[in-house]
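tl;dr need the bound structure. longer version: we got a ligand (zinc ion) that a collaborator sent over and nobodys looked at where it sits. i said id run it. heres the input, straight from their email, havent touched it
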Amino acid sequence: MTEYGKPIPFPDNVTSTFWEATKDNKLLIQQCDDCGARQFFPQSYCRNCLAENLGWIEATGRGKVYTYTIVNRPPTVRFQEDVPYVVALIELEEGVRMMSNVVGIDPEAVRIDMPVEVVFDEITPAISLPKFKPVR
Ligand code: ZN
């Protein structure tokens, strides 16, 4: 495997459960055991009721494009080979929104509300990034 070269997430005690699951191609989101609110990204407390009593549920991985942009100018030289690419806010069926990429499609063909499903990009042995592809 060649060196990845781009920013890599560093799992901590709040996010390690999420990143461990992505290695098994599972997408987890937090759900509050007190009020039932769901949230992404992972935090140590519920953003709705401030409880620290959070559990995890496995998302279906299906959702839709809430909004997106096409990146044409790479933020660093490491992204040169990727442009143009799509940065999107994906709204999962579970109601939370997740910043990611839409892959497997011409960026110009991406549309708001387009149905998508998760795919996992294994960038290192320790990290797989959840990305989204159109549902065919
Ligand atoms: Zn709560």
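gonna send this back to them w/ a short note. The CA atoms of residues 28 and 58 lie 4 Å apart.
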